[in-house]
Amino acid sequence: MKITKSKSTKINKTIEKKREEIQYKFLIAILVIGVIHYYFFESEYIGSDNRYDLFVFWIPVVIGLFLIVKFNILSIDWKDILPTIRKEKNIFHKIIYLPFLFLMHFMLAVMLFWIPSNIIFDGINKIESNNSLIETYTLKVYDFHHSTGRSGSNLIRFIFKGKKERIRVSYEDIKPYLDKNPDDFQVSIEVKKGIWNYYILETWDIKELSNSNSP
Prior knowledge:
Layout: H1 5-41, E1 45-46, H2 50-70, H3 81-87, H4 91-129, E2 134-145, E3 154-160, E4 163-169, H5 171-174, E5 185-193, E6 199-208
Antiparallel strand pairs: 1-6, 2-3, 2-5, 3-4, 5-6
Helix pairs in contact: 1-4, 2-4
């Protein structure tokens, strides 16, 4: 049975359309999982380590970029990129075309590869912290930060082991301290050590220094 060229083209377009639909649904699923994990399951961390940047963010994202380009996830005709840029009359479009193309691939790599690797990292940290004892630290507050933007966070900032750290809190939690001097307060935290230099925050409490009201 012979298949005409038009029928073959239609079949290929149908297969391509189904592939794009599967990719779109998979991307949406990853985003939904990432948002749910961030708001409901991700631990509050104190501490940081460069190994997170390397092994949890950059290596997965770079591998993701390679795979996305290799398997042409975005269905881009790479052979037409340079001719398209040459034909483009708008100078601004010529300049931003390649950076925009890279940004699209980078953001896709972040969503498809960093989100899962971050969830795995968080899970490993939780498992490791279950084997650790609770450690208590009382630290001087240097700032109560109230967010004025929609995407910002209300923060209690302090120094932990020589580094600036913060705890995300609700506006109701931070409201009583916004008009007060942060130097008059300490934050008491209970943490469990996970992997690398990360500590999972268990509880926190604000304490006013006893001499803060002294004349």
